[in-house]
Amino acid sequence: MSPRHPLISIRYFHFLIAVFLLPSLSFAEEATAAAQLDLKHHFVGYLAIALTAVAYIIAMTEDVHEMKKSKPMILGSALIWFAICIYYTLHGQARVAATAFEVNLTAYVELMLFIVVSMTYLNTLSERGIFNGLRIYLLNKQYSYRQLFWIIGALAFFFSTFVSSLTVGLLMGAIVLAVGKNQPKFIALTCVNIVVGANAGGTMSPLGGISTLFVWQKNILHFTEFFALTVPCLINFIIPAAIMHFAVPRETPHAAQETIILKRGSKRIIFLFGVTLLMTVLANILLEMQPVSGMIAGLGLLQFFAYYLMVSEKEGCDESQKGFDIYKCIAGVDWDTLLFFYGAMLIVGALDFIGYLGQIAHYLFIEINVTLANVLIGLSSAFVDNGTLMFAVLSMHPDIPKGQWLLLTLTLGVGGSLLAIGSAPALHLLGLVKEGYNFTFHLRWMPAILLGFFLSVGALFLLNPGSF
């Protein structure tokens, strides 16, 4: 028997793919009808929806099966895009699908590089002893638990205006555990306060929140326009904190039996971080460059300074001051979260390319009230990550005024505080804190957080009456 010709095998393989992907065995009829390549009512579209649901369910139940949330999202996004690209290739339009994939990949790369630089600076400051020094300082001041509750919440709010909220959650969580030993109630209440403060602070600045960063990167709102969210975000943080204040223990923790030791270069690294943030803002405002350009330049400055610290080490100096490696700080970035966002953004991009997001946008922003739609989207961020939701809305390209973009940014940013599964800071604290803070405890304070949510929305309307 003569061997099968290679071309016959390839054609047979393509035929099997066509049978799997096309709803009908009539390839000629489907090729004619596929001129517009509408996949919304096609097997590929249904497959994309199913894979999205499965990936998100697995990711959201991370605590149950202990599988990192990035794994199902990466695999799910890959399978969806492979199905789309195979379908388009069979119809002679491979470049169309590949270009769409590249656009979504570029959007992710900008986000990833921005967050990597931010986290690297925070890891470096932590390695130099800045945050451990802050913990010792707070304990030595002999503040009461109620005072510490407000101080730590305010620090979470402040830090998250220029650092990603998920990083702030980890840093403040470590401080709370050290300060509140043997006080699980204080730890739990302060964790809720950290979540609300970090999400509110990250919402009023594009440097700290994922959803605000997306809006800034797309040039929908300029940097200074986010200042309109300052008062609403403060209200969102203060109202729940004021209600929880009365449940915080009155006692005062014991002073730390330690002295503050900062490693060489710590203060200069804080200065470099400030320079980096300033470059990021000015490059965008004055030169209209993408925000990531200033952050990458700042990473270059940090790398050169790390080299200076290494070559200027003196003989006989303390061993703790030696061997600073900037790449260890880069390696310490939360890659699981970053890769989760890769999968989420690519999945959302695929659903938009198929056409589902366009249909949703038509319903949300045309058939029902725009304000109601933005509030509902914000409330849904209690269940789905706000960065993913914002990227989905941006992919819909809704034609709404800037006031509505401010409203959407506010509701998406602070809506994640309603539940412990709604934002990165809360998820990290759930994994970090083993006693006191849990999903049920956070849920107990949801009415107070919801009150702050609606009062902040009302404040935005009162302060900007002509923007809607």
From TrEMBL:
Keyword presence, ATP-binding: no
Cited InterPro entries: Cit_transptr-like_dom, NhaD-like
The protein's name in its UniProt record: Sodium:proton antiporter
Entry membrane topology: Multi-pass membrane protein
Family annotation (Pfam families): CitMHS
GO MF entries: antiporter activity
Localization annotation: Membrane
Residue intervals of the Citrate transporter-like domain: 78-413
Keywords assigned by UniProt, alphabetized: Antiport, Ion transport, Membrane, Sodium, Sodium transport, Transmembrane, Transmembrane helix, Transport
